[in-house]
Amino acid sequence: MELYGLRSITHGWGRLLHVVSPAGAQAVLDHIEAGEAFMVIATPGVPVQYHQAKGGTVDVLIARYGIVELDLAGWERKKAELGVAALFQS
Fold first, then answer.
1. Is residue 88 part of a domain?
2. Deepest of 13, 26, 29, 49, by most Cβ within 10 A of its Cβ?
3. Which domain holds residue 66?
4. Residue 70, Cα to own-chain centre: how many angstroms?
5. Domain total for the chain?
6. What digits encode the pLDDT tens for the residues 55-88?
7. How remote is the C-alpha of 57 from its chain's centroid?
């Protein structure tokens, strides 16, 4: 499965990873197994987010699932290319 991600931080300096796929947001949720080391945030109209709860979790997710890490410009291009598929729908 093709997965693309952007590292980011929360307002409290927590680490998070935004993830999109051409297969859609629900496919991202179905593909990445839930775990204790991160919290999944699926908000309608927003790409799926994985918030790190344990140090190193973002790196582990990227490695385990082969997530292609993008810079901000690449992320914006990928979101535009994917359109609605990049966003979680309730």
1. no
2. 49
3. 4-80
4. 11
5. 1
6. 999 999 999 999 999 999 999 999 999 999 999 9
7. 12
